[in-house]
Specification:
alpha+beta, four-stranded antiparallel β-sheet, two-stranded parallel sheet, 4 helices, globular
């Protein structure tokens, strides 16, 4: 699109034209891939170290019934009693889904307390946040998540 401009002081008879590009938005389109993250850093101006990775492998078993029976066999009467058995962070953590987890615990090959602790952590997570104040929710979705948890620290930019 071309714009025509005639200054008012020379508009009486002089044909001064100024052509300008309107700067259409498509002329400034740019794509870039971001291959860096502020998560996982424990030094510098932004501190957000990784706290733990979570992931359970159930094979073809129902995750909720498996965890409930494992909890009963270990002598726990409920998830709140299970919560009291482990030391959890008192602050919220940032959760990031891991498509290819490096560490994934096989439910049937590891000690029950190790599996139950991971399940407890997963039950306190949503897709984005670990919240120790929320109730423990064991669902197929929550127990099948593969997450990395990061502790938000200082931010000085």
């Amino acid at each position: 699109m071309n714009l025509q401009y005639v200054p008012p002081d020379i508009a009486d008879g002089v044909t001064g034209r100024i052509h300008a590009n309107s700067g259409a938005y498509m002329s400034r389109t740019r794509r870039e891939r971001i291959r860096s993250s502020l998560l996982g850093r424990d030094d510098g101006h932004i501190v957000c170290p990784r706290r733990i990775r979570l992931g359970l492998r159930f094979e073809s078993t129902n995750p909720v019934s498996c965890m409930e029976s494992m909890m009963a066999e270990a002598g726990f009467r409920g998830v709140e009693e299970l919560r009291a058995a482990f030391e959890l962070p008192q602050a919220r953590l940032i959760c990031v889904a891991q498509p290819k987890p490096v560490v994934q615990i096989d439910v049937f090959a590891r000690p029950p307390l190790e599996v139950l602790e991971q399940a407890l952590w997963l039950g306190l997570c949503t897709d984005n946040v670990f919240d120790p104040a929320r109730p423990v929710l064991w669902t197929d979705t929550s127990l099948n998540r593969k997450l990395a948890l990061f502790e938000p620290g200082g931010y000085y930019a």
